[in-house]
Design a protein that fits this description.
- Chains A, B: Pfam families: TetR_N.
- Chains A, B: InterPro entries: Homeodomain-like_sf (IPR009057), HTH_TetR (IPR001647), Tet_transcr_reg_TetR-rel_C_sf (IPR036271).
- Chains A, B: Keywords: DNA-binding, Transcription, Transcription regulation.
- The structure is a homodimer of 193-residue chains.
- In chain A, helix 6 packs across helix 7.
- With 193 residues, chain A is an all-alpha fold.
- Chain A starts with a helix and ends with a helix.
- The first copy, chain A, has a single domain, classed as Tetracycline Repressor, domain 2 (Orthogonal Bundle), CATH 1.10.357.10.
- Chains A and B meet through helix 1, helix 5, helix 6, helix 7 and helix 8 of A and helix 1, helix 5, helix 6, helix 7 and helix 8 of B.
- The first copy, chain A, binds a DNA duplex (18 and 18 nucleotides) through loops.
Chain lengths: 193, 193
Amino acid sequence: MHTKEKIRLESTELFANLGYEGTSMAKIAEKVGIKKPSLYAHYKNKEALFFDVVDEMEQEYEAFVQDSLNQETDTIEERLYLSFKTHVSDLARDDASIQFYNRFIQYPPKELEDRLLARFNKSEERVRVLLAAVIEKGQAEGSINRELEAKSMAYTYFCLIEGLTTEVGIHSIEEVKAHAEVVWTVYWRGIQA
Amino acid sequence: MHTKEKIRLESTELFANLGYEGTSMAKIAEKVGIKKPSLYAHYKNKEALFFDVVDEMEQEYEAFVQDSLNQETDTIEERLYLSFKTHVSDLARDDASIQFYNRFIQYPPKELEDRLLARFNKSEERVRVLLAAVIEKGQAEGSINRELEAKSMAYTYFCLIEGLTTEVGIHSIEEVKAHAEVVWTVYWRGIQA
DNA sequence: GTCTATAAGAAGATAGAC
DNA sequence: GTCTATCTTCTTATAGAC
């Protein structure tokens, strides 16, 4: 693996776990296995390194949602349920990219806030559109309520995912997975025709 | 106001907005209007100051939930809806205590993680019990589904609140409030008898 | 590209005068 | 209790040899 890739990989994990201020160039260098000044041969400064990670995380997150929604199922209900479960499994899997995304969408470092939120906003919108398309299919098929707007139901879906994401830090994986089942039951009752 | 109170007040806001690492003793001192070393006459160190704020925030959060649930209404549905709306309004109100609570429950500084989560876990459980009691009342009255467990429905409620909390950073207050209405509609459809 | 050495500044915290 | 002065450590970042 090229050094630059390794820097991106290790710093993703550190940023996700320790935050922006909590991650020093020294820690990154140590994990990569080089000395601190060598980092500056690959990135102009800490900010440039961080935004390189942001770029990659956005792409990964969108690809993940797309894949989760493209799984083969008989009904739209199953498709949504499977996607929901995949999301939850991913939370539990302690995936650095998802954690990175969730951490900085909520708590961007003050000096990078404007640039970060502009990016995340667009990314969230793209992802919501993907889900709304599946929900609309369910409405066309007649399995999902037609009085509610598809994008409203998509919003609620991501709202629950984000709520469960919050819980991951507090509760055990098993608890979150059990809670996710309950949450899904309530959600499906809420949107079904 | 006593200096110690002012320190607690100003540092709550700074911690909530900038995080633990992002908040320096120098910044706190400046906002309070004293010099940095004077802080150490009131608190042994930064950690002690932080945990003093944690204590107060927990109490405030639990009192807030209790009050939101004790509002006078005709039906349990209205009572839950009103509490939900109060919660959302509070998110939008940019309240430092709620933001503090939500920030550190999700992203505790690594070196304080164990002590913080132990506290928050107990606090969350107490709050969930308060809501479950109201939901059980709804079940007894017949307005809320009896096949689902009250505490599961309480869990989903807080999951949605936490999801909406996440959105506050990204979207405008108006958008979040509009989303909250939609989310409530789906939730109520999900739990009603 | 990677290293050693080092600068320049900010962080948490303490000593001791008033 | 608050201050000035100071210490130590850690931070981001650069200079320049190899």
